[in-house]
Amino acid sequence: MGSTVVICHYHEVALKQKNREIFEKKLRTNIAFMLSDIVKQNMVMRGYGRLKIVLPFSYEDSEKVEVVKSRLRDVFGLTNFGIGVATSLDLEKICEASLKVLRNKEFKTFSVKTKRQNKKFPLNSIQVNHEVGAFILEKFKNEGHEVKVDLKNPEVTVHIEIVDKEAYVYADRFKGPGGLPVGSSGKVVALLSAGFDSPIASYMMMKRGARVIFVHYHSYPYTSYDSIEQVKQIVKILSKYQFYSRLYIVPIAEAQRIIVLNAPVGLRTILYRRLMVKIAEVIAEKEKAEALVTGESLGQVASQTLRNIRVINQIASLPILRPLIGVDKEEIIQKAREIGTYEISSQPYDDCCSFLTGRHPETWANFEEIFEVEKKFTWNELVEMSLAKAEVENIYADFLDKNIVEKIED
Q: Where is ATP bound in this sequence (predicted)?
């Protein structure tokens, strides 16, 4: 019997036509990152319309197979993947492999589905289905087990893929997250808080292929240090989707004090947001990022009305992407539960945007009033003051040895 393999399929990547090879290569690199402690990089191989991973252990090693399965479910770009065995282009061997992938499974109905990319194989897909199905029925009958073929709603399906030099056989097929491979769409800088929204916005940008650089603003010592530790935990969770992350931790308390001395209470939150955009753009230039990302959702809080969003946008030279702009809060919270940030975001923390802002922030800011206030200070000075004390931390997914990053990317 051949090696244990994972056969990975993708959909959106396959639609990239002339750029398809670039996306496939990025997906292969990302899988190599995800399984870097399990398989060697050269064991992740490209094939037409699929990727093949050769695993260094037996198909029956369920514990290790489970680890591979859980990791690949987090690789953006994968539509689905099957874990099974590779075998030679011989019908008898294919039949034996089909029987092997069904062992230790409880079922009464099954089907066989064959894809024959290699048209030189003597049997067509329907004939392979028939021959393999008959073989399975006979073997199980001889062993005293009654199973039936059910083509409409089988309890288990044997998938067979016949390619140029071998065949892949698997009965375990799992759904991937879809989207595009992280890094295939460039870089963005996300303004990250410890709340529910911005982690989900960052996750959604990763799913669209963007590598996310994080920037977190805090008002310590005027607010607690809690948000910083919570954000580090959130970035740790999000890093499993892009393998490693860079986090900028930027103190803005001194800049906020200058704003407070010069601005009416109602405008302070908007001015803080404009400051954050200016700082994020400097970081974006350094990181060669193409856009900023926020977790804003239309009308959710005072700074997220249409007018205030427009006022905040006005100071930016880069696009500000808002993946959650039309998403309901309950949807955001549900996604936070799914990806594992919910418990952290549920904990109380001090939001730097609420620093000395009062109870009634402006919901429909006036451009002229904003510009008049901003004449009293210089944005460049506030930005430089904040970035001078910024900290930068690289955070890696638990399974990734940071020493292997450069080796795989090269």
A: 191-192, 216-217, 273, 295, 304
